Amino acid sequence: MAVLLVAIAVAVSIGEMSIPLTTTFKALGNGLFGTGFELSRIQEGVIWDYRLSRALLAACAGTSLAISGAVLQALLRNPLAEPYVLGISAGASTGAVAVMLVGFGGGVLTLSSGAFVGAAIAFVVVSILAAGSGGGSERIILAGVAGSQLFNALTSYIVTTSANAEQARGVMFWLLGSLGGVRWPDVTLSAPVAATGLLLCLLHARALDAFTFGSDAATALGISVLRVRLLLFGVTAAMTAAMVSIVGSIGFVGLVVPHAARFLVGPGHARLLPACALIGAVFMVLADIVSRIIIPQQVLPIGVVTALVGAPAFAVILYRARRTA
After folding, report:
1. Smallest Cα–Cα separation from 241: which of 123, 70, 140?
2. Spatial CB neighbours of 174, under 8 Å, sequence gap ≥ 6
């Protein structure tokens, strides 16, 4: 937890306007405890109105995506499973863009609701493709790749036909993962989603442990396999959709972080899920820092940073899975 707090403090201090860490802590003290330090109004405004909300949202997104990855890997018994690979993120992006540009839902659906609908549809499509191809963990991953391409194509079609040049540029940058423009209302949406998702998954930690040995083992332990699967798939879809609707589609967090957490705390989900939450939060905050400093005077989409880390990790995990098969 201390590492996360330090990472957030560093993220708040770094940017076009460099703010010393001591000033950051004083501003936080003024806001939280009324300590009365005399600080520049501009610095306090930058810290409270922009950077702190951005850092906290990055932490919430990292937590949600990492937990989703760990849960999906247990349910599907596949080390490569995660929302991005399985097409859930792509479906959520399509749903969000459809609401944003086309008005899908007739004004009834919010951006987050549209993203959830898209994520749910994507999961159903991938499940049907996997079942039709004979099932199996490898087939699920292949179906996920196909589903991702399908929904990415639908998103591109919507953007091409329904957006002007400025809207298209903004949407495409957002789809790569962007924390620009994040404000406190986004944090008040993402924080309860992340906390509730973690709690629900922790309540089913024993079931997730059983699922790693297969559905038969879970049934033998008295677990309602269908009910738990539907619940946890719904939880992961909701967490993914909420984060995609705010920050766009960010890949590989749900793939890399669970494996790092297993290496540190072992496979038991009672310890694994909190570790994923913490490591995922730190990873995303650090990725946000890198996205702001890697290119001078320019912010790189955070999804590019996570992909630069996640793609090599994906290759390593794939190679190890091949060796142990």
Report:
1. 123
2. 247, 248
